[in-house]
Amino acid sequence: MLKGPIALGTIRTSFVLGLRLFIQAGTLLLVARMLGPEEFGAFAGIASLAVLLGALSTFGTNLILLGEVSSDTATRNTVLSYAIPTTLMCGSLLFAVYMAIAHWLLLGNRLPWNVLLAIGIAEVLLQPLFSLMSSEHHALGRVARAQLMQNVPLVLRLLTAGIIFFLDLRLAIDIYTGGYLVASALAVLLGAYYLPERWPNWQCWHLPKVEEWRRSFGYAVINISKSVPAELDKTLAVKLLPIDAAGIYAAGARVVGAITLPVAALILAALPRLFREVNQLSTRTKNLLVWMYVATFACSFILAVILWFVAPLIEMMFGEKYQQMSEIIRWLCFAVPGISIRMISGSILVASGSINYRMLYEFSGILLLLLLSITLVPEFGILGIVFSLVISEWVMAVIGSWKTLYKPYIKGRADV
User: Fold this and answer.
1) How far apart are CA 223 and CA 200, in angstroms?
2) CB 359 within 8 A of CB 222
3) Structural contact between residues 280 and 415, judged by C-beta atoms closer than 8 angstroms
4) What pLDDT digit, counting tens, does each position of 104-144 carry?
């Protein structure tokens, strides 16, 4: 069973992530209703692209910071001295890539350029800096505080969306994305204020050494492989579907993604301990992994069943422009346990140092998602991308869980 600090940490983190679920759901509902399917589809596609590239901006140094400080707090300044300049440099380069891809997707013809700039600066430049701050709290065992910090920009975005929606303001997308950018900037300032201690002086900053680059590269690939399965489908939808259908799909997919937050609470609460103990191959550690999988599957299955029955109510809340959304949500319910198991398998593999294996199975899943989407969307339309996501998530879940539960402990028993 999950006992002691992990159980208590899970409860605290579940509360914070439950608050995040409420915030994200409210924001999604308001933004989707005020923009309509077409404009929301374009917005969701460009936001997903920005989140994808933003996951690479730290070049994995946020995970190095988490792992090192979890084991030894004295390493904090050593890691930050190269993590901060690396994030600034990579973020700047990726921002240019983001703008080029946005042009290729023709999103500049559907969204004003100030909207593209605001989302890009927020997600590719500011949020990665904020992730370094929250990773530090997470490494110190302050999981709930780390997640509460990440709720700050979400709350500000919810307030912005609420003001626009209820006052029925014109140029809604311009005002909202302006608030989106300001929210991220304020979050960075607030995060800097609540750091355990100041970041190293800029004069101490330096780029990583060769060995640090190599190590960071592995974690950077982990960051992008973790984010791509959750975001790529929305960007693909913009390219493969009519823009209004892409908006309906994105709204349904965001609802399903939000429902996995309780699983994220379990993973986040256990992660510091996993970094310390997962390679010991002890009975205690094995029991921890088994119970994490059992709890993950049971929780995700219950959540999927609940979501199945409330899907028509959710469609009603989004309005008549989002017809067919309940059908999409119900099909996506089949992906919820797969998404959850894929998430927990990936976190265990990172903690155990099996980075190459995680990269292999997640990039295989990403490739499968791409190939299936290109093949199935012309035949099944919007359901084609739904089927592609369900299949790819379950393939990744099965491969990842086999590696973490079966293969390591066969080796462990052989060594005894």
Assistant:
1) 24
2) yes
3) no
4) 766 656 778 888 999 999 999 999 998 888 877 776 766 55
How many angstroms separate the Cα of 284 from the Cα of each of 274, 352, 372? 12, 15, 40
Residues near 214 by Cβ (< 8 Å), separated by ≥ 6? none
Residue that the structure tokens 């990440």 belong to: 150
Look at residue 411 in the predicted model and tell me its pLDDT: 44
Contact 107, 247 (CB under 8 A): no
pLDDT number for residue 415: 35
Report pLDDT for 201.
84
Q: CB of 39 within 8 A of CB of 21? A: no
Q: Token pair for residue 12?
A: 């605290």
DSSP 320-378: GGGTTHHHHHHHHGGGHHHHHHHHHHHHHHHHHT-HHHHHHHHHHHHHHHHHHHHHHHH
Amino acid occupying residue 411: K
What is the Cα–Cα distance from 243 to 237, expressed in whole angstroms? 8
Sole residue written with tokens 């190095």: 64
Through-space distance between the first and last CA atoms of the chain, rounded to whole angstroms = 25
CA distances for 397 relative to 364, 403, 405, angstroms: 12, 10, 12
> Is 111 strand, coil or helix?
coil
Q: Is 238 helix (H, G, I), strand (E, B) or coil?
A: helix
Q: What is the pLDDT of residues 25-67, one digit of tens each?
A: 888 889 988 888 888 888 888 888 898 899 889 888 888 887 7
Q: Which residues contact 404 (CB under 8 A, 6 or more apart)?
A: 289, 345, 348, 349, 352
- The stretches in the chain having pLDDT less than 70 are 1-18, 105-109, 139, 141-148, 265-285, 353, 406-416
pLDDT of residue 226: 72
pLDDT value for 228? 77
Write 383-390 long-range contacts (CB < 8 A, 24+). 383/327, 383/328, 383/331, 385/233, 385/236, 385/237, 385/240, 385/241, 385/249, 386/249, 386/328, 386/331, 386/332, 387/331, 388/233, 389/233, 389/253, 389/332, 389/335, 390/331, 390/332, 390/334, 390/335, 390/338
Listed residue (153, 160, 158, 147) closest to 185, CA to CA? 153
CA distances from 307 to 38, 333, 335 (A): 25, 7, 12
Backbone φ and ψ of 323, nearest 5°: -60, 145
DSSP alpha helix (H) spans, 74-142: 76-104, 113-120, 127-139
Lookup result for tokens 């398998």: 345
Grouping H, G, I as helix, E, B as strand and the rest as coil, residue 58 is coil
